[in-house]
């Protein structure tokens, strides 16, 4: 694998790892499982694509096709992370609430209802704009640091 891929994967791992202490500071709750979940601060999607784009810009230059592809791909990923995926998460909250409402209705019925419903849908899918920005800043920092540490002198 090339250095750009390593740096992007490192940036994604850092973003996922940072979610644990950030959540702890904000909520007072230690949740190591956040490392394996989507959503939250900072966005690992944004960190990964922005670190790769930064690395390519510094290594190959801004007027290259490599940079253009990485930039456009990265913008699409970040837009999707805070737009479509966030909306899906908000819709999931409503679907899960409906499931709880149906359960309450069935509990008040005289007919015994024993069907087991599906598991609750995961509610934290996408990102708030600040989470995307946080991931992008982390990615730019990681990409620049990766470039500086790996460039030949």
From TrEMBL:
Keywords: Membrane, Transmembrane, Transmembrane helix. This is Acid phosphatase. The keyword Transmembrane applies. It comes from the Bacteria. The chain crosses the membrane at residues 132-150. It comes from Cytobacillus oceanisediminis.
């Amino acid at each position: 694998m090339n250095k750009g891929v390593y740096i992007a994967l490192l940036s994604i791992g850092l973003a996922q790892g940072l979610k644990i202490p950030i959540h702890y500071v904000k909520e007072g709750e230690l949740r190591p499982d956040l490392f394996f979940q989507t959503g939250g601060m900072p966005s690992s999607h944004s960190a990964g694509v922005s670190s790769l784009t930064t690395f390519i810009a510094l290594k190959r230059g801004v007027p290259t096709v490599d940079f253009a592809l990485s930039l456009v791909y990265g913008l699409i990923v970040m837009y999707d992370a805070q737009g479509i995926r966030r909306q899906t998460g908000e819709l999931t909250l409503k679907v899960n609430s409906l499931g709880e409402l149906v359960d309450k209705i069935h509990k008040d019925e005289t007919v015994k209802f024993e069907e087991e419903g599906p598991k609750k849908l995961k509610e934290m899918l996408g990102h708030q704009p600040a989470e995307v920005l946080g991931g992008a800043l982390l990615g730019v920092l990681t990409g620049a640091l990766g470039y500086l540490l790996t460039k030949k002198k």
